[in-house]
Write a structure and sequence with these properties.
CATH architecture of the largest domain: 2-Layer Sandwich
Oligomer: single chain
Number of helices: 15
CATH class of the largest domain: Alpha Beta
Largest sheet: 5 strands, parallel
Structural class: alpha/beta
Number of domains: 4
Shape: elongated
Distance between the termini: 92 Å
Length: about 500
């Protein structure tokens, strides 16, 4: 706290300095009124004390001039007894207090008491001023924040009309505050207002409840469509009367536009996928008719129903035709199956299935293929396994696809082992082969449609790559799961888990 003492008498100056130093005040001392007036011009001092012994002009005149220039300047006077009446007049103008200086009067003690009192008063005043400055700075920071971000603050009255908004910049919302005040959001939305989409918002206004993540569209001043998301809470006075809502808003136009574009892309993709499935189904059916004829006639040639063939090579050609036709028909059936599954048109007829019996039948059907290839098939199915509720045709297809896939990738001299058992409320079927194995990179995509794995580039195998994809889709349709583990050069284990029937 800085104090200026204007006094010419050295003993008084020394006494004042001692009193000020005793209570920790910083004192500047000047001896003339003119010097004092000049020093007070910039308002640098918290307190100005004026003595009664000046060399150029009366102290009371100095006080008047200081107060005329700055009525808020705190002043303290040291006067003689005959100046008392004039000092009282100056109290009206703003002088804080005065002490009478006369011989034999304890003015110095009174002076020290006054200084202590003034220090306390002005320390509080200074703290108050600092607090007000800090508050003003904080308010300005809040205004700057509110006006610089993509979010903004708002307040509405009882009917939902804007009474305040912290958004003067048109660039963020497409509207300016002057165009918003006094209007409701419904009015601002105009032709974009859709009653059913605003039901939650209008209910919050009517029932005086919170507004949560409400999005609405409105036309900006530039003609563009904006989308805002708002959150707000109701306001009430001390008597509980509803005053309106206040809250925050965000410009979500870009996010909304991206969502719309994504949804459109998804719709387009679904339509394209549906068109693809329908095309494949149509073309597959178209292929089946001539294929059935090829298979039928090639079978007649092989059986020589019309009489013996003229040359031995004809029988070999007939076998090749029949084999090729069967292979092509199998490919077409796979395409039809995956198309029906993807389109959700694969019909299911659930019934109680004995897994052990079904697997045994499938193994029996592939035994000839396994013998021809030189692969040993081992079956370990315990008696008394619980039944599963499943579509029999789908379960046969699952089993056959997994078994045929294992045989396809197992070389001569290898083996395929089939085991089954109960684990909790599931039947676990495992097909383990000693084949070429699948790499980790291929394993991640092995069940994707049309994905083929060929660890041996010199051994190209036939197929669409749909077998495991069809199996996985059908297993999941039954509430089960397909798991595959594999090691290159060691083999692959395919595990199928199906829920036990609850009946």
């Amino acid at each position: 706290m800085r104090v200026l003492y204007i006094e010419a008498k050295p003993s008084d100056c020394d006494a004042f300095r001692q009193a000020a130093d005793a209570i920790g005040l910083i004192v500047d001392i000047l001896h003339s009124g003119h010097a004092g007036l000049e020093a007070c011009a910039d308002g640098h001092y918290d307190i100005v004390a004026i003595g009664c012994h000046l060399v150029d002009m009366p102290g009371l005149d100095v006080a008047r001039q200081i107060l005329n220039r700055n009525p808020e300047q705190p002043l303290f006077l040291v006067i003689t007894k005959d100046q008392q009446l004039q000092a009282v007049e100056l109290l009206v103008l703003g002088v804080i207090s005065f002490v009478i200086h006369e011989e034999g009067h304890p003015w110095l003690g009174m002076l020290e008491g006054y200084l202590v009192n003034l220090r306390t008063r002005f320390a509080k005043r200074s703290d108050h001023l600092e607090a007000m400055k800090a508050l003003s700075k904080s308010e300005q920071r809040l205004r700057d924040f509110a006006e610089s971000g993509s979010d903004w603050l708002w307040e509405t009255d009882t009917r939902g009309a804007f009474v305040w908004e912290s958004l003067p910049a048109e660039s963020r919302s497409g509207s300016i505050v002057s165009d918003v005040l006094g209007k409701t959001r419904e009015e601002l939305a105009g032709d974009l207002f859709v009653a059913e989409e605003w039901s939650d918002y209008r209910r919050a206004i009517a029932e005086h409840t919170a507004i949560v993540d409400f999005e609405y569209s409105y036309a900006g001043t530039d003609g563009g469509i904006r989308t805002a998301m708002i959150n707000g809470k109701p306001m009430f006075d001390e008597a509980g009367n509803f005053l309106g809502h206040l809250g925050a808003a965000s410009n979500v136009t870009a996010r909304k536009r991206a969502e719309d574009e994504l949804n459109k892309a998804l719709v387009d993709a679904e339509q394209a996928n549906r068109a693809k499935s329908e095309f494949l189904a149509t073309m597959s059916h178209e292929f089946r008719t001539p294929l059935n004829a090829i298979l039928g006639f090639s079978e007649m040639l092989r059986a020589q129903y019309m009489g013996p063939l003229g040359a031995k090579n004809y029988e070999e050609y007939a076998n090749d035709i029949h084999h090729s036709g069967e292979h092509l028909l199998a490919l077409i059936n796979d395409i039809l199956d995956i198309s029906a599954i993807e389109a959700g048109k694969r019909s299911m007829s659930p019934e109680d299935i004995n897994v052990g019996d079904l697997v045994s039948d499938c193994v029996h059907n592939i035994e000839k293929l396994a013998r021809d290839k030189g692969v040993e098939v081992l079956l370990h199915i315990p008696e008394g396994l619980p039944v599963v509720q499943a579509d029999k045709r789908s379960l046969i297809q699952i089993c056959y696809n997994i078994l045929s896939n294992a045989l396809k990738f197992t070389n001569e001299g290898g083996s395929v082992q089939i085991t089954a058992g109960q684990q909790g409320k599931e039947i676990l079927l495992q097909v383990e082969d000693s084949g070429i194995g699948i790499s980790a990179s291929d394993l991640a995509n092995i069940t994707q449609p049309f994905s083929q794995v060929n660890s041996d580039p010199h051994n190209v195998r036939e197929g669409t790559g749909l077998g495991l994809s069809i199996a996985k889709s059908l297993i999941e349709a039954h509430g089960g799961r397909l798991d595959i583990i594999s090691d290159i050069g060691k083999g692959t284990t395919v595990s199928v888990s199906l829920p036990v029937s609850s009946t």
